[in-house]
Design a protein that fits this description.
The complex is a heterodimer of chains A (149) and B (93). Chain A has 149 residues and is of the alpha+beta class. Chain A is built from 4 helices and 10 strands; from the N terminus they run E-H-E-E-E-E-H-E-E-E-H-E-E-H. In chain A, a hairpin with a 2-residue loop joins strand 9 (122-128) and strand 10 (131-134). In chain A, the strands form 3 sheets. A 4-stranded mixed β-sheet of chain A has the order 1-6-8-2, sandwiched between helices. Chain A has a 4-stranded antiparallel β-sheet with strand order 7-5-9-10, with no helix packed on it. Chain A is globular, with a radius of gyration of 16 Å. Chain A starts with a strand and ends with a helix. Chain B has 3 helices and 5 strands, in the order βαβααβββ. Chain B has helices spanning 17-23, 39-47, 51-57; strands at residues 10-15, 27-31, 64-67, 70-71, 83-87. A 5-stranded mixed β-sheet of chain B has the order 2-1-5-3-4. The longest helix of chain B has 9 residues, at 39-47. Classes of the chains: A alpha+beta (149), B alpha+beta (93). Chain A binds chain B through residues 34, 50-53, 55-56, 59-60, 81, 92-93, 113, 116-125, 134-138, 141, and chain B through 14, 16-18, 62, 66, 69-71, 85, 87-93.
């Protein structure tokens, strides 16, 4: 398992290569990449700043990965989450899961993303024409996470 | 059980995101006040400061609290040496 919280960007191809390197049992890799959009709740977003709770962030992501491992037969997981100031089109988050078959990889990847959005201590502040504002948690994200219970 | 020495009964409190801005601080070392032994009583103590504290931490406001980096609820014990964090609902991903 790899968990990284970093300001730097990441390269999807490099990360997937590392994830499956040396394991000929891997038959599937599912990836999710989250990207900064230029619009949120009807307002243009010039940039956003991501804040985290150092220490708890890594711990909570590791806990979420352990939970995924308990539910699905998966080989390895990588989660990279960026912090600091990001602009539209920038990558924010990567979740990649390897497994023998696609079903487990797809499901575990979606589960990890849904839980990460509702449990990992990150907060977004957006710069819009009306000034800067903290992004509110969305009920839709809680509902997405609740389907896995 | 460790003896409770008032001089050392200190908890480290952290504030994140909107709360950090509203309180004008990211952290503080608090000598545990008399009668504060869990998350609920600590929250009520902070509300008692009035102003932004009373507004942001009021019952019914969406505030998340972690003790020693694990999510907590009002009944979670708080003791000397603990790290207690107050923050809004998370918005990562």
């Amino acid at each position: 398992m790899t968990v990284r919280v970093q300001t730097e960007d990441f390269d999807l191809a490099d990360e997937v290569a590392a994830l499956r390197r040396g394991n000929p049992k891997v038959g599937a890799v599912a990836c999710f990449v989250g990207v900064v959009r230029d619009l949120n709740e009807g307002d243009a977003v010039a940039q956003m700043t991501l804040e985290q709770y150092p220490g708890m962030t890594e711990k909570s992501i590791e806990k979420i990965i352990d939970e995924a491992r308990g539910r699905w037969e998966i080989y390895d997981v990588i989660v990279i989450h960026r912090v600091g100031t990001l602009a539209p089109t920038d990558q924010i988050v990567l979740v990649a899961v390897s497994s023998a078959h696609r079903g487990e990889a797809f499901q575990a990847c979606e589960f990890l993303m849904d839980y990460l959005k509702t449990r990992a201590p990150f907060w977004k502040k957006e710069e819009t024409p009306g000034g800067s504002r903290w992004v509110d948690a969305r009920a839709a994200d809680d509902q997405a996470a609740a389907r896995w219970r | 059980m460790k003896p409770t020495d008032p001089q050392t009964a200190i908890v480290q409190i952290l504030y994140f995101a909107r709360l950090r801005e509203a309180f004008g601080r990211a952290d503080e070392a608090l000598v545990l006040p008399e009668g504060v032994g869990d998350v609920g009583s600590l929250r009520r103590f902070l509300i008692g400061r009035g102003g932004a504290w009373a507004l942001e931490l009021a019952e019914g406001r969406a505030v998340r609290i972690a003790v020693n980096q694990d999510m907590a609820d009002a009944a979670t014990p708080v003791a000397a040496g603990d790290e207690v964090a107050f923050f809004p609902p998370v918005t990562g991903g």
